[in-house]
Each structure stands twice: as structure tokens, then as C-alpha cells.
Amino acid sequence: MKSIKEKIKDEIKAGNRGKIVLPSDFEIKYGVENTKKSLLRLTNEGFLERLARGIYLYPERDELLGVLYPDIETIAEEIALRDNARIIPTGIQALNLLGLSTQVPLNAVFLTDGSPRTISIGKRKIKFKKASPKNLAAKGRLSGLAIQALKEIGKEKVSQDEIIKIKEQLKKEEPENLYHDMKLAPSWIADILGDLLRYYYE
């Protein structure tokens, strides 16, 4: 008969390498203590990699690069899913995801309606910052990112080139999402989103 550790190992192996593993994936089935001990043993055996407290990785390895770590946003989204929380990237992270910056932030900040906290992943940090429901109410992923990116740049500093790049990205967004989300944005950002809606309906 297989031990709980071996059963958990089999379940993890059934998924893809590079997958984030959380204790909550197994706690209902095997209990909190059994899960905790099993994940610790699997980490000590080198089967799993511990990213941070309560966050593990079923690692994908490259011959030259070693362990291939998932990007910060993937990890943040897994944590948010576990906590049943909404998140939205802000600042440099939002700029990076929209292709407006090649800078990869060392510390990524996400607005959340979950618990505010900071999680260290190696040398990088994920900060979850408590936000009002309005800041998390965007329906469109791209329009939500655009609002945060434009807030980061600022009304006085945003260039025409950046506005053009954002509008190009937002052409992939559903018009109804744009219409919904422009009402959540500061007026100068709403004007930019509104310009794009005119492009759809002209």
C-alpha cells in the first residue's frame, strides 16, 4: 500500500513540470499535517523545490540553465487562486506585461482584495497590496493592465508613442470590457480608452 507521500508524488507527477504546488491542493484529501510532512520530505528528496513558505515547484530542468522558474505573475496568480482573491499587476510589472518596458521588476506589486503581505521568491519579492474593490473591478485583463500602466507613467509624462502602443494592445480587448473599465479609470485614462471605442464603432 502506498504511503501518503507517494500518493501525493504520483498526483504531482501526473501534471506538467514547471507547475506550482500548494499544500491546499492536497489538504482536504490527506489532512494538513500529512500534507505538510509529505511536501517537506519530497522537497528534501529533491523532487520538489520550495519557492517560499507554503509554495513549492515541480521543477522543469534545463541542462545548461538548471531549474527553470515560472515568472512572478504565474506564482502570484496561483497564490491568489488558492486564497480566492483577485489581483492586478501594478507599476513596472504592468508596463512590462504590456510591452512598454523591458525592465523586469525585482519586486512585483499586485493590488488585491485578499490579505496584504510580501512573499520572497529567491531574490525577488511579490507584494500584495490591499486595494479598494473599484481598483479590482476591471473586467478586461488588458484594459485593467492599461489603467495601471498609465497610472504608473502619469498624465504629464505619458508620451504619444506609449499611448499608441497601449491602444494597439487594447485592440485585442473586448469592446464591452473597455466600455465597462473606462468608467473605473481617472478621466484622462478614460479619454484614452474612449478614443479606442470610437475606433471600434466608427
Structural category is alpha+beta
Strand content: 15-25%
Gross morphology is elongated
Taking pLDDT < 50 over at least 5 consecutive residues as the criterion, the unreliable ranges are none
Q: Strand-and-helix sequence, N→C?
A: HEHHEEEEHEHEEEHHHH
Strand count, sense and barrel status of the largest sheet are: 4 strands, mixed
Radius of gyration: 20 Å
Strand segment tally: 9
Distance between the termini: 67 Å
Order of strands across the main sheet:
6-7-9-8
How much helical structure, as a percent, in the residues? 40-55%
Count of discrete alpha- or pi-helical segments spanning 4 or more residues: 9
Mean pLDDT: 90
List the helices and strands and how they pair.
Blueprint: H1 4-13, E1 19-21, H2 27-30, H3 32-44, E2 49-52, E3 55-58, E4 60-62, E5 66-68, H4 72-82, E6 87-89, H5 91-97, E7 107-112, E8 117-121, E9 124-130, H6 141-153, H7 160-170, H8 175-182, H9 187-201
Parallel strand pairs: 7-9
Antiparallel strand pairs: 1-3, 2-3, 4-5, 6-7, 8-9
Protein name: Transcriptional regulator, AbiEi antitoxin, Type IV TA system
InterPro entries: DUF6088
Organism: Polaribacter cellanae
